[in-house]
Design a protein that fits this description.
With 312 residues, the chain is of the alpha+beta class. The chain has one domain. Helices cover 34% and strands 13% of the residues. It has twelve helices and ten strands. Strands 1-2-7-4 form a four-stranded antiparallel sheet, sandwiched between helices. It has a two-stranded parallel sheet with strand order 3-10. Strands 5-6 form a two-stranded antiparallel ribbon. The protein is globular, with a radius of gyration of 20 Å. [4Fe-4S] cluster 1 binds at residues 189, 192, 195, 249. It is an enzyme of class 1 (oxidoreductase). Pfam families: Fer4_16 (PF13484), QueG_DUF1730 (PF08331).
């Protein structure tokens, strides 16, 4: 009887996640990530997080979701595709921004979907407790998504899905509800090293290990100081984030355009030339990126990145 209830609840979670527009939903049993503990500790000790001090905080919570949600039994992992209809960086006369930042800030879009999912489950099942997260808590999302059978962690440390590649946002719902876990899938990277070979700053330092402090995304978004001269000429026109290791990945030939209108770019953004970027005003910045993740760099940070990329 109990198993039937668990199966019914599991089917309900996946059905409602699909109705809310999530592309994949996988489930893992909540618990301590024993294998990840030494890897995370080593990564932090080598200062691969750079100025991202928050990565060193809440070490235990990062490895054990039951410390975030007491009594947690299940990790409901969700993926939302953000691959665009058009690659704005394909035009040589423009600067490049990461595809995830083309439209509105994904945090707001996904958070609403997650809260709606939790509310539906509470209405349908009854008294269950849970918390929703999208980059908003110390949760090792890719590792949990891998455990939940949604893909494997590639050499570039991103989650790869055999059917759709890696252009996905990952989010989670941690529940005190017992659900049927999905099994992990095989690693299909094989001997391919395209992402490692293509990274212009040599940030991919091992299989699935990225030195965050060397990544173009880190330099253009997280770093608040001046970008070091030693990486001058290596950014290949990227001014916010970087997709190089994803663009060269063979699995991304299976990527398909997303179906979330809010993730589509502002029409003015599609026509931005290098000159437009170089002359961007505060007014244009606020208009284009009113609801965008690009607001994180502020206009000053974006201008710093553009000037740095011009130094070739």
């Amino acid at each position: 009887m109990k198993d039937t209830t668990i199966q019914r609840h599991t089917a309900l979670v996946k059905e409602k996640a699909a109705e809310l527009g999530f592309d994949y939903c996988g489930i893992a049993k909540a618990g301590f990530l024993e294998e990840e503990a030494p890897k995370l500790e080593n990564w932090l000790q080598q200062n691969m997080h750079g100025q991202m001090g928050y990565m060193a905080n809440h070490f235990e919570k990062r490895l054990d979701p039951t410390k975030l949600v007491p009594g947690a039994k299940s990790m409901v992992m969700l993926m939302l595709n953000y691959y665009p209809e058009k690659d704005l960086g394909a035009n040589e006369d423009t600067y490049k921004i990461a595809k995830y930042a083309y439209g509105e800030d994904y945090h707001h879009i996904i958070k609403w979907k997650l809260k709606e999912l939790l509310k539906i489950l509470q209405e349908e099942i009854g008294d269950i407790d849970g918390r929703v997260f999208v980059d908003s808590a110390p949760v090792m999302e890719r590792q949990w998504a891998q455990k939940a059978g949604m893909g494997w962690i590639g050499k570039n440390s991103l989650l790869l899905n055999k059917n759709r590649g890696s252009f996905f946002f990952i989010a989670e719902l941690i529940l005190d509800l017992e659900l049927e876990p999905d099994g992990p899938v095989k690693d299909y990277c094989g001997t391919c090293t395209r992402c490692i070979d293509a990274c212009p700053t040599d940030a991919i330092v091992g299989n699935g290990i990225v030195d965050g402090s060397k990544c173009i995304s880190y330099f253009t978004i997280e770093l608040k100081d001046a970008i070091p001269d030693e990486v001058s000429g290596k950014f290949k026109d990227w001014i916010f984030g970087c997709d190089i290791c994803q663009d060269v990945c063979p699995w991304n030939r299976f990527s398909r355009p997303h179906h979330t209108p809010e993730l589509s770019p502002h029409e003015q953004l599609e026509d931005m030339s290098k000159k437009d970027w170089e002359e961007i005003t505060d007014e244009v910045f606020r208009t284009l990126f009113k609801k965008s993740a690009i607001k994180r760099t502020k206009l000053e940070g974006l201008k710093r990145n553009i000037k740095f990329v011009q130094k070739k």
